[in-house]
Amino acid sequence: MINDPIRMTAAKTRNAAKKSNVAKTIPLILLACAFALAPVARAVTKSDQQKAAARPHAVAHRIPGPATAAALRLMPRYRFENFTTANGLPDNHVYTVLVDGDRIWAGTDNGLGLFENGRWRTFTTKDGLAHRAVLSLALDKRTGDVWAGTMGGLSRISGGRIDTFTQLNSGLSNNVVYGVSIEGEHVWVATAAGACRLDLHTGQWSLFNERNTPMVEIWTYGVSATPTKVYYAVWGSGILEYDQKTGVWDKYEDPDGENEMVLFKDQGLIHEITTSVSYVDNVLWAATYFGDSRYDGRYWHNFLKKDSGLPSNFTNYVKGVDAHRAWFGTDKGLAYFDGTNWAVYRPNVATHQPEMTVRDAGGNVTEVPVSTAPAHNYILGIDFQGSDIWVATAEGLSHGILESKTNLANGK
Fold first, then answer.
1. How far apart are the first and last CA of the chain?
2. Which CATH class for the 5-402 domain?
3. Domain limits of the chain?
4. Percent of the chain whose pLDDT exceeds 70
């Protein structure tokens, strides 16, 4: 039976980090399987959140009253169209989504889907894809190439041709690729055994792990690369920051250590178990399994279900819009924060009927009548297409078509 990584103690993980690379590979692959199977992971990790359940519930349950008219007016409203295998999607379990102009790429548990001109096309291992399970996607805007991180290596889709990089034929640090980000001529990769970087000009690989960076654990789960900074979400090691100018690594950790109780609110990263990072407009957004964080280079601001509009502290993915706005993919729905107010889009947890709620700065919550919702509450990926939003879920891919243009979701 696969061990639940959240229950692994710091002592165990640090001891594991001292073992050889060969010894680490097997448990890391098992851990990757646990993370990849989102429905299973959710069932396992719910027990880990029971301690947090003893704390006050969401503001919606303890502060009565409707949200202000201004908050309701500012929140974007969508009509969601959902895609499943019935529509041609390769698999209903969608780990990641990537907008490529008019084309949409979906990384699923059974191949890479391409939605173009109203039809789906599927790329599999028969086409050269490294593995059927596609966990992450990135677009090289200079060349139009699409990079796909899989459970069996890193693949590049270029002009209909697929080239694959693995531990055997390249400098890839591990075949389980959780995240990929392109910046200039560099491909930054997050794997189950450390981070790495491919120089597209020279073809050289650089490896980053506990030997040459501040990370203690080596499970890198997400990466966000920009011309100035590169950020990695590292399971159990918080966030790593790479300065592109100086080549120096820095580290951001939870001041509470691995304590699930928040002792020092807004004094640093909310938790060490980070799952996703997004750096935009010189602001870092970070997702963890115990809440989320925003860092502007000087001040931290943390978000918890009990004092924000988050539907759950268990966050799989974050995507910043700008310095003030961001989207969060949780195990209880899709959340949007505009810097002041919150909106949540999901099928109701109890009734499974479409639901949208708005929470204002005062903690007042109002339910907005809607007829559609994302395909599932368990959100794994988010991307923008103009004023629309695409959402990867555990039970399908969702396209949110903006209906209210009072406040565009992605600032365009």
1. 47
2. mainly beta
3. 5-402
4. 80
